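Practice problem: predict the structure.
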Amino acid sequence: MIACTQPRRLAVQAVASRVAEEMDVKLGEEVGYTIRFEDITNEELTRVKFLTDGVLLREMMDDPLLSKYSVIMVDEAHERSLSTDILLGLLKKIQRRRPELHIIISSATIEAKSMAAFFNTSKRRRDQEQGPIREPAILSVEGRGFNVEIFYVDDPVSDYVRAVVSTVLSIHDQERTGDILVFLTGQDDIDAAIQLLTEEAQSSGKQGLVAVPLYSGLPRADQDLVFSPTPRGKRKVIFSTNIAETSLTLEGIVYVVDSGFSKQRFYNPISDIENLVVAPISKASARQRAGRAGRVRPGKCFRLYTEDYFASEMPVVGIPEIQRSNLVSCVIQLKALGIDNILGFDWPASPSPEAMIRALEILYSLGVLDDDAKLTSPTGFQVAEFPLDPLISKMILASCELGCTEEIITIAATLSIQSIWIPVRGVQKELDEAKLRFAAAEGDHVTFLNVYKGFIQSNKSSKWCHKNFVNYHAMRKVIEVREQLKRITQRLGIGLKSCEGDMQAVRKAITAGFFANASRLEPFSHNGMYKTVRTSQEVYIHPSSVLFRVNPKWIVYYSLVSTDRQYMRNVITVDPSWLTEAAPHFYQKQMHSSIPQ
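Answer:
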């Protein structure tokens, strides 16, 4: 087989569909794809398989040498995602054992010489009988792009969302036909820009603009609007995250508006906080964005930053994700593949030792690693079997002892989906009222159980979802993911039991996985300020949580998001004594001074 990896799930689906169409074959037969929790391939027929880097890594757990593939193509390698860097390091090791394996590293903007040097270092030790090492070749393939004219602003913009909308309206007024692609940072910016564009177009009497969003958590039906032909006499404006920088072919784009920013994940191992922050893009990303305008005819790119900034201040390439991420999932994957010397692993870019040590500490506290930093049996190997964050996997294992596996795999499936709620602009009050119908005093995780129960009782009705502002496609996906988790738990010999409404057992299971994310309400706090127990960081409950303004004393959160404050998403109330039960050596000193005597 030929494997071709992409960094994003949406890109995998789009490219696989395009290749199947161009080869005139049915998707899922000769050409197929695999993403997490979705396999559209045929064991006997599939010869060209598209998949995410992460899925290929998981395949190595069953087939360490990837023996069913003769060619592996790592596409969009310049993005340097966490999974891409791990994959490149492992492919280098595999090629020592399989010199006949063809590896293609593909990208429009990657530093080809440094990547070739990585695969050609003196660390390749060969026995003489294995034959000579072939030098990596650097090939340049001419694209079919048209010329793109670049425009810059004279002065830095103070509000890039407003500047984006203003630029779109100017293009619509002054430029000939052709669709517009706008790059923004995330869903919030995109929603705000679409609302502002709609208001501005209505007030100025401008017609013919069709605004559509594009981001990773978008329901499938809304994604299809992006790829559908633009109605006659209209101009489509696609507001996208950096998901549209590469791989996705958006027909009809002639104009690009580049805000110059994207959302990037940054992890601080000292404070143990991972933030999704708005950060400037690199020159490599800027060139990719501009290139989107030259696919169908000569195009124009409007950059909302100065030419001087681009030339002298903008970084050439972005920071590889492995140097700014929490490495817990990365470490357990390598351990499961039998790589014990993590610090000595041959990385394309070395991660920080602090982040690596922090990951080892968390995994040790979870009972996943032993005193020699090897996977424990059976817990460590079982956690590695799940295609999930190790904290969620440990939560599932703990639920077996507490007799609430049925409830916990429902929660795990829901946490794997970006959101089960429909974000509807202008009706926040109605959405909040809908959430209250399912709200549980224990917190968001139990609220998810109530939503799932209601969906099943409605016979999986789309009308029920619409009435309750629940995303129907997301709930269908929750059911699919839940079935896969159910199969994995059964394969591991974990019994499926229900706690029959005992939410204390559910909360204890969640605490067993997420004890490291505990926070305590500050005494006499009037603004709902919490402090993390481990590192005393100031954090607040996110406004989307059912516990917002309730402010219970002790909580455990699923993730943090950073805007003007550090916000905790998906929180649940806990008893502080459960934290020391779950990880006594992790919390003993901190808890002694925190728990009221």
